[in-house]
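In this section we walk through a basic example: taking a raw amino acid sequence and producing a predicted 3D structure, encoded as discrete structure tokens. The instruction is simple. Fold the sequence below.
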Amino acid sequence: MDYSTYFMIALIAGGLVFGFACSVFQDAVSRLTESTFDSIECALATSRERRAAAQQYEWELEQMRHASARSSSVSRWARHGHSAA
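The resulting token sequence is shown next.
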């Protein structure tokens, strides 16, 4: 027999072993797959929450910078004898 025949026999045997293993370990594979997807989903949600918190912090920091800049310009304006109204 030539190598292609051996290859075909090995391919068919591998497929049968894979099919048998899937049927025997179906519940374990299903639980493992589901837990893997759950951990990925949890990691994505955590990352999204961290990114939103960082964006909120940056926004609040920018608002404080603007408020500080406005108050310092108003105080400079008032020091020079102008009315702030």
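Looking at the output, two observations stand out. The radius of gyration is 33 Å. The chain has a mean pLDDT of 86. In the next section we compare this with other chains.
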